[in-house]
């Protein structure tokens, strides 16, 4: 009826409602008849050009006979699906099952399984690679089985995607639709490489290659670098013994001595069977969802920038949540030691010129809270503590236990037990990444040494300036920057994004600026500021006057 209305120019809303009713009826009919239909593949990850077997099976779990008219497998253009044995039309009696096996061959040019949208490089928008899939949550499966059946005088189709079933990592059976993957998956790390200028040292890159072919394979891997770079080795030969094996060769890429500041790119390429592979598969897999794939270029952004840390910097780093700052400090040339529970409780903290707490570390690291007194003793004896952004957990000794389904509520604004003087993390933020920044203490070392910051260092930030600023309520805190969003919904001058206080012979610094967003984005000014934050010698305080 819906198709006829569409041909005759019927009302679109009626056509849509009729289509919904037809889909509901088509789904209800096999349930009423007790007809179960499943399509299983003998492989979950197939490479272009590969053949595999798909079994389509129908089972009559009802009380009356179901007549099977035809069983088929639908595949994309360029693929092939042929029955290994034919199934003549037959009546499936209650309790009976019938199955047909098909040999399916993926097209040599089959599209890898991935979203049908992609964000172009340098653009804050998505483009459709497969416009026909616009509006769908995900592209339809490539391999779909279909059975045409008849119950009494009613004939109807029933479809099911081809699934691969396997044992999940936590036990129990999982399943996923058949995925198309490259014969070699290539991933390059680090995703962002920083070259402090002047360029003196070679940069290490690692290329992880995963074999998706169905057995032993060989490949050769190399880096593609900007002109003037030297790479050792020039090429690496890889040998794989089995499907799923990963091999990671290392390369040292030396930039030219005259390298200028700017953005560059390094790519990795693996060759196998006369084909070049320049992309890698990121597997998105959790116990509660079906596995999905993201295919990304095997490329690393390289940022050459005038940023350096002071000689002899020794950083003790308390890792936080989703934290990439420790690796950033290593790329700048700082010596970084990750501080675990034992180091915080028993280690000699005095050997570090600066200790940095990671993003939301006071939430994710109970051992940091437990050993806060040792960290503050380190500060009082001349150390420098840099506390990166925290949420309201910073304001309380311990979170109250929450029952399932309990709505999170913000705790009352009380002075933090982890700040040296009366202060608390607030909800203040500046959301415009281009909001003007006013430096309140221009001669402070954070803005002068070893990198002299200027207005250009506040340009090119991403997403926001910062969030969860410190509300300082004591004159011993010194506010170093202020800023204001340009729109009325967050009006008013904001402080607390960068605050310092002298404590004993050392210093305590709170950083509400969103360095954790800027660092992976390669924002030059944020990298330069980070280098300055950790470069102060032990026992060196700055007298900039008090007041916030």
Description:
This protein is mainly beta. Helix content is 14%, strand content 37%. It contains 9 helices and 39 strands. Strands 1, 3, 4, 5, 6, 7, 10, 11 and 12 form a 9-stranded mixed β-sheet that branches. Strands 28-27-29-30-39-38-36 form a 7-stranded mixed β-sheet, sandwiched between helices. Strand 10 and strand 11 (154-167) form a beta hairpin. It is elongated. The N and C termini lie far apart (74 Å).
Shape category: elongated
Task: Quote the beta fraction.
Answer: 35-45%
- Which whole number gives the mean pLDDT? 93
The level of helicity is 10-25%
Brief digest:
The chain has nine helices and 39 strands.
Set down the secondary structure blueprint.
Layout: H1 2-7, H2 12-33, E1 35-41, E2 45-46, E3 51-60, E4 66-74, E5 80-83, E6 90-92, E7 97-105, E8 117-118, E9 127-128, E10 144-151, E11 154-167, E12 173-177, E13 179-180, E14 184-189, E15 192-196, E16 203-211, E17 217-224, E18 230-232, E19 236-240, E20 246-247, E21 250-254, E22 262-272, E23 275-277, E24 279-284, E25 292-297, E26 299-305, E27 314-318, H3 325-331, E28 335-338, H4 341-346, E29 354-357, H5 361-364, H6 366-370, H7 372-380, E30 384-388, E31 423-425, E32 429-430, E33 437-439, E34 466-467, E35 470-472, E36 477-479, E37 481-483, E38 498-503, E39 506-511, H8 515-521, H9 524-533
Parallel strand pairs: 1-11, 2-13, 15-26, 27-28, 27-29, 29-30, 30-39
Antiparallel strand pairs: 1-3, 3-7, 4-6, 4-10, 5-7, 8-9, 10-11, 11-12, 14-16, 16-20, 16-21, 17-19, 17-22, 18-21, 22-23, 22-26, 24-25, 31-35, 32-34, 33-37, 36-38, 38-39
């Amino acid at each position: 009826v819906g198709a006829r209305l569409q041909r005759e120019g019927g009302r679109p809303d009626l056509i849509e409602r009729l289509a919904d009713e037809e889909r509901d009826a088509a789904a209800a009919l096999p349930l009423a008849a007790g007809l179960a239909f499943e399509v299983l593949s003998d492989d979950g990850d197939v490479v272009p050009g590969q053949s595999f077997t798909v079994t389509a099976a129908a089972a009559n779990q009802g009380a009356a006979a179901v007549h099977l008219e035809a069983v088929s497998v639908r595949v994309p253009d360029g693929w092939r699906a042929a029955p290994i044995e034919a199934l003549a039309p037959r009546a499936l009696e209650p309790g009976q099952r019938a199955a047909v096996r098909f040999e399916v061959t993926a097209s040599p040019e089959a599209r890898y399984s991935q979203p049908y949208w992609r964000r172009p490089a340098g653009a804050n928008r998505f483009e459709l690679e497969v416009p026909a899939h616009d509006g769908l949550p995900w592209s339809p499966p490539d391999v779909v089985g279909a059975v045409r059946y008849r119950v009494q005088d009613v004939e109807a189709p029933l479809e099911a995607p081809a699934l691969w079933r396997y044992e999940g990592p936590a036990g129990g059976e999982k399943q996923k639709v058949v995925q198309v993957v490259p014969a070699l998956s290539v991933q390059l790390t680090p995703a962002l490489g920083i070259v402090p200028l002047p360029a003196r040292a070679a940069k290490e890159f690692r290329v992880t290659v995963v074999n998706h072919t169905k057995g032993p394979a060989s490949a050769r891997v190399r880096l593609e670098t900007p002109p003037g770079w030297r790479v050792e080795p020039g090429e690496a030969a890889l040998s794989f013994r089995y499907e799923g094996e990963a091999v990671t060769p290392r390369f040292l890429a030396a930039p030219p001595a005259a390298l200028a500041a700017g953005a560059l790119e390094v790519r990795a390429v693996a060759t196998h069977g006369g084909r070049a592979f320049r992309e890698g598969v990121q597997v998105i897999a959790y116990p509660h969802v079906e596995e999905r794939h993201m295919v990304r270029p095997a490329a690393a952004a390289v940022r050459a920038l005038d940023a350096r840390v002071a000689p002899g910097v020794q950083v003790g780093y308390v890792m936080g949540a989703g934290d990439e700052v420790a690796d950033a400090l290593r790329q700048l040339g700082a010596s970084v030691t990750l501080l675990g529970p034992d180091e915080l409780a028993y280690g000699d903290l005095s050997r570090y010129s600066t200790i940095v707490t990671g993003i939301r570390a006071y939430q994710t690291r109970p051992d940091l809270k437990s050993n806060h007194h040792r960290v503050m003793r380190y500060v009082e004896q001349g150390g420098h503590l840099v506390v990166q952004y925290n949420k309201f957990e910073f304001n309380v000794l311990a979170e109250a236990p929450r029952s399932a389904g309990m709505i999170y509520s913000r705790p009352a604004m009380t002075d933090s037990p982890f700040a040296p003087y009366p202060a608390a993390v607030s909800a203040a933020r500046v959301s415009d990444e281009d909001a003007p920044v006013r430096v309140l203490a221009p001669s402070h070392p954070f803005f002068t040494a070893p990198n002299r910051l200027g207005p250009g260092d506040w340009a090119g930030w991403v997403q926001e300036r910062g969030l969860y600023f410190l509300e300082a309520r004591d004159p011993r805190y010194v506010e170093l920057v202020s800023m204001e969003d340009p729109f009325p919904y967050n009006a008013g001058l904001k402080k607390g994004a960068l605050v310092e206080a002298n404590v004993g012979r050392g210093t305590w610094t709170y950083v509400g600026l969103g360095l954790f967003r800027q660092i992976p984005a390669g924002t030059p000014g944020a990298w330069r500021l980070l280098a300055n934050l950790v470069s102060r010698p032990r026992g060196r305080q700055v007298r900039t006057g008090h007041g916030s």
